[in-house]
């Protein structure tokens, strides 16, 4: 019996070695500040998603994948923490961490096809979300450091989506349905995070 191919390590991150931008938050339009809060929440959820995998599966490939991608998401979170002081962050961070753990733990518990489908779906959605933020920032607050941060994070998320999709290119419909729910909830979460 042939053993499964190893999970690919996350490719070199665009945020490796990147220092945080230093925008003047008070000079940024409120809409951009809300987007930064939503991005901070998104990266908080992403770290928690990969944290949730550890207690939900013993599959070595899934655990390797989660650990590798968690390192990149943790780097993103540190960059947003450096930009956004605690008083500007969401008041619901404990809830966001819990929801991330569920979003990672449940599909990992159900099995690799579910986990990879959720990661591929959510990360592809996040790629598009960052693209919309970049377009907005270019129009309203074209701070070069901020744009570089958003673009680098977007490219990392795109790699994560491709890594997951490559590991299970044809998940069952139930896994695709769970991924659809996770994507829908991600959109709801962003709308809430902009304001709370």
Fill in the keyword field for this structure:
196 residues; Ferritin; globular; metal-binding; iron; ubiquinone biosynthesis; monooxygenase
Task: Give a short summary of the structure.
With 196 residues, the chain is mainly alpha-helical. It is built from six helices and no strands. Residues 1-13 have a biased composition (Low complexity).
Textual characterization of the structure:
With 196 residues, this protein is an all-alpha fold. It has one domain: Ferritin. The protein is built from six helices and no strands. The longest helix has 29 residues, at 112-140. The protein is globular, with a radius of gyration of 16 Å. The termini are far apart. Residues 1-10 have low confidence and may be disordered. Residues 1-13 have a biased composition (Low complexity). Residues 1-28 are annotated as: Disordered. Pathway: Cofactor biosynthesis; ubiquinone biosynthesis.
């Amino acid at each position: 019996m042939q053993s499964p191919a190893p999970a690919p390590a996350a490719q070199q991150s665009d945020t490796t070695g990147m220092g945080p931008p230093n925008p003047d938050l008070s000079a940024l339009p409120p809409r951009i500040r809300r987007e930064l809060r939503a991005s901070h929440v998104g990266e908080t959820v992403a770290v928690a998603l990969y944290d949730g995998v550890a207690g939900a599966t013993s599959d070595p490939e899934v655990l390797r994948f989660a650990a590798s991608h968690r390192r990149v998401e943790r780097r993103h979170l540190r960059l947003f923490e450096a930009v956004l002081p605690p008083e500007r962050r969401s008041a619901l961070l404990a809830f966001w961490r819990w929801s991330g753990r569920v979003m990672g733990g449940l599909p990992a518990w159900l099995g690799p096809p579910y986990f990879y489908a959720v990661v591929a779906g959510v990360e592809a959605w996040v790629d598009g979300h960052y693209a919309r933020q970049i377009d907005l920032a270019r129009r309203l607050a074209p701070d070069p450091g901020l744009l570089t941060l958003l673009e680098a994070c977007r490219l990392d998320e795109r790699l994560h989506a491709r890594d997951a999709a490559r590991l299970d290119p044809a998940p069952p419909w139930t896994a695709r349905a769970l991924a659809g729910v996770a994507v829908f909830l991600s959109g709801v979460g962003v709308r809430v995070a902009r304001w709370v």
